[in-house]
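Researcher: I've been going back and forth with a colleague about how Site-2 protease family protein might be arranged in three dimensions. Neither of us has a model we trust, so I'd like an independent prediction. The organism is Streptomyces phaeochromogenes, in case that matters for your notes. Sequence below.
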Amino acid sequence: MTTATTRHSDRRISPVFLGIVAVTAVTGWATWTGFAEQPGVAVFLFVTAAWIVSLCLHEYAHARTALHSGDISIGAKGYLTLNPLKYTHALLSIVLPVIFVMMGGIGLPGGAVWIERNRIQGRWKHSLISAAGPLTNVLFAVVCTAPFWLDALDGVPADFQFALAFLALLQVTAALLNFLPVPGLDGYGMIEPWLSHNIRRQVEPLAPFGLLLVIAILWIPAVNGVFFDVIDALLRSLNIDDFQTYCGQNLYRFWTDTNEFCSVSP
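Model: Here is an independent structure prediction for Site-2 protease family protein. You can compare it with whatever you and your colleague have in mind.
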């Protein structure tokens, strides 16, 4: 078994990530207490910061699993520090997903960590590395939705409930999209080791365009409607209704015409 050897500095949590966590905590408190003069601004900062935290954890899960599967180069690349600036494509992994959240309230998956797959032996290890990221989104979704399906919302301010509901929607969409067996996404990475060499060779040129293809397909109104019907059904099964996610997105996009019905902070 390959020993994962990394320096302590390679595993030290980045101040950049700690700063993002601090923003999440402070703006979460502001959303809870109604401290902010405009609740939408607090919700926007809280959800955005929490979303970036989840993106960092998603990529960390890929990297950590790869490290223990045999790719001991992961530490030197800075992936274990949770610093988003160390990612191979920071634009795709952080900036683009945040822009899509701002535009349409969808948790867009991104690709970031470069794994040296030739160091890893065994198809199950390769599949697990790909699965680790979206499974992190699933875990994040469980945490966000727990107060709803545990009926533990007594005393939780409505604005904070709305923010959690919208954040949960992002995590569920990110997990669902990542699990799609489309080249370039984690879902395909899970099944790729089990495909024949000829199939993998034929599909490989499509990988850089897989995410763009998914985005283009989601622009089709009929497909978009079916996709969000599935998301809404999943959220309803977790005791989150359309009103809560709608108000969460409405508060998040504070720069648009705010629906006063959703703004309940004093």
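Researcher: What would you highlight for our discussion?
Model: I'd start with this: The radius of gyration is 19 Å. After that, consider the following. The longest helix spans residues 39-69.
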